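A quick word before the example. In earlier lectures we treated sequence and structure as two separate objects. From today on, think of them as two lines of the same record. Here is Class I SAM-dependent methyltransferase written that way.
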Amino acid sequence: MSQHENYFEVNKATWNKKVAIHAQSEMYDMKSFKAGKTSLMPYELKALGDVNGKSLLHLQCHFGQDTISWSRLGATCTGIDISDSAIDLARSLAKELKADAQFVCCNVLDTSKHVKEQFDIVFTSYGTIGWLPDLKPWAQMIAERLKPGGVFYIAEFHPILWMFDYTDGQAVMQYHYNQEAVIYDEYKGTYADQNSDIISKEYGWNHGLADVVNALIEAGLTIDYLNEHDESPYDVFPNLKKNESGMYVMEEQLFPMIFEVKAIKKT
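And the structure line, produced from the sequence above:
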């Protein structure tokens, strides 16, 4: 087993432990979701617009709330995730909610080995690319899975946020903005339930915006836009406060919290 494969196996084991905890958490609000509440955020809905009748591939989908939310808007969806526990729950939810969504368990970098069709949309969001050591094969896979004229969209936490270590409840700058060396983190709890008794063991990598954009360009995609936003849809960093729009901001906002990229596969 290569070193990267070992990292992926450790991450998979951690995500398998998180699934049951996240499914019961206030953050994922399963009761409201089952009742019809969307899990999608304003940036995402605005970026992709009317998805009715379109095919959508959701990368690193966790247990499928966003995938199913897109299907409720009329898309035919396929979700990918490395966690078999997450995929089991996603399939169960899709069946229960009669969603037009199927789910495949695999490492996102291996997607093209498991999914052969092409899609109108490839979508991914929040806490995804940091699990990948190299974005070039990721971007190449996205290009392979897009139809000509198809759209790729990512909403993700800004790389500046990942320069900090948060394990003691305070933000301490510790990592490079674009760090090639692997980062190992071990801590009690999970972002959706910090009081949980599980021990999260995680290997990750930092990718600057140039890494993201250039990987997509090298894969043959055309960048439509890159936006940065001074707010987060999730209260997953220390000392955030909710603003009037329901998003979360820092008390002293000195850098963006979210970026989004939309790219097109030209015909």
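Notice the following. The chain has one domain: 3-264. We will return to this example when we discuss secondary structure assignment.
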